[in-house]
């Protein structure tokens, strides 16, 4: 924008300078020509009285003196054929003036010829000829044009400098607004724009600041609501824990109590996360193999109760680090396996596969032998099975946070096949990620 404003001012000034300089240059040339012609005509007119009355010697002396001081040739043609002053041929204009007594100015390729007829001599009509060369007609014009061009260039540079300064006062606040908007997009909600510049930009800055404040308020309210909702789950969990303690089968009670503990840990983590300010976890990382085995082992117990076959295939021969935190990876896998249990009948088997990803990271695939699902169910809130429709969206956001994506397809047996492409850690394997 700054460059465009400067170019616009420069183009406008060029047009204005052309409209001013070109007529002025033509006027200077005309003035120079008129000045030279008037000076030559004055020299010729000053000899008229001498040619008509002076004796030959005095006239010769005066004409030669005039010719020596004039910028162009001055010649006097007498009726007897004598030529005084600068030698010159009798042109057609001189012959016409001697014959008809006509004074005139004639335009010639090499200059201008001024002819003055002097009447009243006893021997006939004398003619005074003053000639202005072409070089004299344009004398000083080139220098004046150079001065005009220099002045125009100086004015243009000055105008561009002023335009650059003015455009900077406009562009700087706009650049600052852009920087603040990018900070807000990176979840830095403390960023604020300074109300500087023209009134319109100050109004935009105020609106942007108001928007940032409103977003902060809405996020704070949302976090509080999530925290309150999560806190309400503690009472049912406590009641469920008490129920498990009263079971006659100690093994069954221990198994259910372990699941209640896992759910309570998830609720506690949700409360803690909701009450903290969320920032981008660009350094998040974990070792995917251990997290995968731990969560599959958890779901295998429930799979055995419902008659489902579980297949775990880990193709990695060593640690496989991905750019997500261990709890987020566990949440994504729980969401995918939860969908299998929720939307397929008992006895439907499923397979979990983990393989290295080209370029770093991992490919996590969950495939089942159920009826499958359509691709539009990956949208947040989209579900035809009576659920909230958030499971696939949770997995998708986890994959995208690492620079990957979620793919939904149909498996070889006709069931759903969900693949999470998990990118590598941003700064290499993290010690915290080695489980």
TrEMBL record:
Location of the region described as Disordered in the Swiss-Prot/TrEMBL record: 403-435
Protein EC: 2.7.13.3
SMART domains xref list: HAMP, HATPase_c, HisKA
Sequence intervals crossing the membrane: 144-163
Membrane topology: Multi-pass membrane protein
InterPro entries: 2C_sensor_his_kinase (IPR050980), HAMP_dom (IPR003660), HATPase_C_sf (IPR036890), HATPase_dom (IPR003594), His_kinase_dom (IPR005467), HisK_dim/P_dom (IPR003661), HisK_dim/P_sf (IPR036097), Sig_transdc_His_kin-like_C (IPR004358)
GO molecular function: kinase activity
Intracellular or extracellular location(s): Cell membrane
Domain Histidine kinase: 228-426
Domain of life from the UniProt record: Bacteria
Gene3D superfamilies according to UniProt: 1.10.287.130, Histidine kinase-like ATPase, C-terminal domain (3.30.565.10)
Keyword Transmembrane: yes
Reactions catalysed, as given in the entry: ATP + protein L-histidine = ADP + protein N-phospho-L-histidine
Cofactor(s) demanded: Mg(2+); Mn(2+)
Pfam families: HAMP (PF00672), HATPase_c (PF02518)
Boundaries of every HAMP domain copy: 168-220
PANTHER family named among the record's database cross-references: SENSOR PROTEIN CREC
The protein's name: Signal transduction histidine-protein kinase/phosphatase MprB
